[in-house]
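My current task is to audit a protein record that another person submitted. I need someone to confirm that the token line plausibly describes how this chain folds. Take the sequence as given and treat only the tokens as open to question. This is what I was given:
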Amino acid sequence: MMISQRSLPKVSVEQIVERIFAFRQITRTDQRLLMSAFLSKKCYNETDRLQINRVFDALQRGLIKVTD
């Protein structure tokens, strides 16, 4: 089932990342929310960039599982 960008709630990058780390997994919905958050912004701040790097680092270390 495909979720359109319009049906995704507006949440901050920080909120999405907190949820990912709380459950130690990233879902397709989380991925879409992150993409939507970034696509909706014209410029990104250092905090957002650091949050995304935390997720990538945790994925590479196996600390976060990728689920559907």
In short: Helices lie at 13-23, 28-40, 46-61. The first strand starts at residue 25 and ends at 26.
